[in-house]
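Troubleshooting log. The previous structure file for this entry was overwritten by mistake, so regenerating from the original sequence record. Sequence copied from the archived sheet and checked twice against the printout by T.R.
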Amino acid sequence: MTPGFRLKKLGTETIPETTVHIHKKVAVPATRTVYFQSDWEDIAITAPMLTVESAPVKQPKGYKGYVFQLDLTGLATGPTMLTVRPGPKAAAAIKGPKPCSMLKVTILPEIVLPDSNSDEGLIARVLLHEVRTPEYGDYAFEEASVAMNWARNVLDNRRFRRFDLFMFKRQPSLLDVAQKHTTFKDKHGKEHTLYQFEGLGTYPNVSAAEMKNVGACVALANDDSDPRQSRYADHVNAALGVAQAAKAQPDPSPHGLYAWLTAGYITPPGGSLIKYGTHGGLDFYTIDDAAFASKPLYGARQ
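Regenerated output below.
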């Protein structure tokens, strides 16, 4: 049997390129489990920057060889190497050069969001809350990336370009934009509150239930035992990149993007907003020619 590492207790699946990642959490030790299969009954392990708990795994009757469960805990961030050699008993029975197997391990910092009270923290949470996540079967990272950048365009445009079109008499803060809402009564006299960004009207005092997409994305991005981890890590890191950029990427619309709704939403926003395009599960809207040509109020600029 050729010695090797794999992710499952049984079968022949090996870890691609003999490499694994561990995200080291700030307060909780980060542990990743791998399995080592060989003809050796005992093994010797060398692993800088790691603590390794090793235990034999019972295999089905007739299975030839040994399998060990290795629980790897990262002690510091950076690259390291896990080396497994035959233990003293096994080495004594091997004539000639003693074989060894090596596994590249990269210990990464925990992926965390900026403070919720900062602009970067707010933008990151808005993007993770709104843009379609890898949970969806039709998810595409490229689509999500475009949606995140377009959403940043919307937020910046409402702050710096035509904030007068969205009930602001002065240039608003990002928090003003997130919390903005209107109250109206229907024909039965019942009062309703319409938020410009659903679920964020009381930000940063938002319940975990309202922000479940955010919490789930960050948790999975740091869960190295979950096969979806790399997709969620890419998704969260893309949101962080957009949120922490000094300014938004160039706006794709000549008139600017000013709103979004969940794709296929039954009732479009109407008024001066017209649909521009769809990405990442969101329909994005620009403003019509009349609104664009109108004289800005309250000092808003184009």
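The radius of gyration is 26 Å. Archived copy saved in two places this time.
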